[in-house]
Write a structure and sequence with these properties.
Blueprint: H1 11-16, E1 21-25, H2 38-55, H3 64-67, E2 77-86, E3 89-99, E4 106-113, H4 122-136, E5 141-147, E6 155-157, E7 164-166, H5 170-177, E8 181-192, H6 198-212, E9 216-222, H7 227-243, H8 258-272, E10 275-283, E11 288-297, E12 304-312, H9 321-336, E13 342-348, H10 352-361, E14 364-375
Parallel strand pairs: 4-5, 12-13
Antiparallel strand pairs: 1-2, 2-3, 3-4, 5-14, 6-7, 8-13, 8-14, 9-10, 10-11, 11-12
């Protein structure tokens, strides 16, 4: 049995690690052509192998060119990573996202083990590394998100009262053993796009327009956000941290302004070559943006797009603005990116109003994901 004496120095890891285990820091190259970029390319290959196994699809495979900008330093979040090896062969990775402006007590941890290396203790040993890094960073809470494989048997219910995960899933069992509690269940849904679906989208858009009336209108833009909208867009992003359902995973209210939109959102997306379409609803009497949704497509060669944040401000709900902004944006996306064949999105299982909108649009369940938390004593 070996331990990672240089990267972990952890007696717990030394006790639990399988033979040949090491955990080395992930170097972030300035360029993918650098001599130091080899480990990043290895990590990309491992990430994609795990994605294929998790989703049974190539839709979530990303090239290193798309991944690298997301690892660069930010004023708002720091990323730390370890590469898990067995006698030098890469078999897993541990990533920590450490917020720097809000939720500074939290570490968001992602752990992935190659399918060929599972069941031999690498996941447990890698988790010990991740928890130690979180403690060393001064964090008192770990959060993680896991796609659970369906297993017949007992269920672990969400504390929200809506949704559950299979208790006999290996990942769920590992998390429970280590003191994690399920905080929320999220639904990942997929929508098939194509010319044959456009009439249904237009009908839903038209019905919502009629219900909304003249006090609201749809506006849209691609990155970079026009100056006339950037302040309202920043405030909508801030309200995502307070108005969206959070289950047992409450977070600090985020502080957003035009600089954060430019530096955190747009800089990374533009560096990757992403297509991003933001649709919003303007309240005509006040001139304020009161709802928004985002569609994003990576420059990864797939025919997939992601519907990211969507929100209707609490004080403007009940007018069918969610349906209007989503239907309008999907139709606008069809013109902007006609090659897109599928759109994926996440929603909390307790967010029935937004799930109703998505189901009416044609989204169907793809996978369920558990959101877990652990308090570090």
């Amino acid at each position: 049995m070996s331990s990672d004496t240089t990267a972990t120095g952890s007696s717990a890891t030394a006790r639990t690690a399988p033979d040949g285990f090491t955990a080395e820091p992930l170097p972030i190259p300035a360029s993918l052509d650098d001599a130091s970029a080899g480990p990043f390319h290895e990590m990309t290959a491992l990430r994609n192998a795990v994605a294929r196994d998790t989703y049974a699809s190539d839709d979530f495979v990303l090239p290193a060119e798309v991944l690298l900008p997301g690892y660069e330093p930010s004023d708002y979040e720091r990323r730390d990573g370890r590469l898990i090896r067995e006698h030098g062969r890469l078999v897993g990775r541990v990533l920590l996202d450490l917020p720097l402006t809000e939720d500074v007590e939290m570490a968001k941890v992602m752990l992935e083990i190659h399918p060929d290396a599972r069941g031999r203790g690498f996941g447990s040993a890698a988790y010990e590394v991740g928890e130690r890094l979180a403690r060393e960073a001064g964090r008192t809470e770990i959060r993680t998100w896991v796609v659970h494989r369906e297993v017949v048997g007992p269920r672990i219910p969400s504390p929200t009262g809506v949704g559950d995960v299979p208790a006999l899933d290996a990942a769920a069992q590992m998390l429970v053993r280590r003191g994690f509690q399920l905080g929320q269940v999220e639904r990942m849904s997929v929508l098939e796009l194509g010319e044959e679906h456009d009439p249904a989208l237009r009908a839903l858009r038209d019905e919502a327009r009629e219900a909304v009336g003249d006090d609201y209108r749809y506006v849209s833009w691609t990155y970079p956000t026009p100056d006339e909208y950037v302040d309202d867009y920043a405030q909508l992003k801030a309200r995502m941290s307070t108005d969206a359902p959070q289950g047992d995973l409450a977070e600090d209210e985020q502080q957003w302004d035009a600089k954060r939109v430019r530096d955190e959102l747009e800089a990374t997306a533009l560096a990757r070559g992403d297509q991003v379409l933001v649709g919003a609803i303007e309240h005509v009497p006040s001139g304020q943006l009161v709802a928004f949704t985002e569609l994003q497509r990576f420059d990864d060669g797939t025919k997939r797009a992601d519907q990211e944040d969507t929100l209707v401000l609490r004080e403007h709900r009940g007018h069918r603005l969610g349906m209007l902004v989503k239907a309008e944006n999907l139709l606008a996306w069809r013109l902007l990116s006609p090659a897109t064949e599928r759109v994926y999105t996440y929603n909390a299982e307790e967010n029935r109003p937004m799930l109703d909108v998505n189901e009416a649009l044609g989204f169907r369940l793809f996978v369920s994901e558990g959101a877990w938390r652990k308090t570090l004593d």
